[in-house]
Amino acid sequence: MTDTVPGVATAEAPPTRQQLFLRYFTAILIDLTVLNLFAEFWDKVFIQSFSYSLLAAILLQVLLKLTLALEHRLARFFKARPGAMAKTMHYVTAWLVLVVSKFAILAAVEFAFADTVVFSGLWHGVPTFIVVIVVMLVAEEAIVRFYRRLG
Q: In terms of pTM, does the model score above 0.85?
């Protein structure tokens, strides 16, 4: 194994299947922990059972990685183009992908889990869902940084 393990919260491809497994296994465990903590301590997040939270963590991890990959692909496309319009489009598309994807991911969770995984509150739980996703991403990045500091 190399000295640096690719970040959990990145969309870059890891060099080996073992590192890919480690990245997603760790990210899913982090997401699972965050989901269950929110379900336990915030009445706006309801998860019927541990099994549903595990499946939700897997689904969320896959969809978040696809979102990041799409955002990075669009960024590379627009960064390769000269001019102010390309730079503007880079930021506009990044913002659109990152915002619109949350609605799509929430819809996928609602479709997949119906009443077993529920984010409630204002606007059908969208702000609640965004808070959970942001905490997941922050937790993933914090764990990666802690791991790297260990040497």
A: no
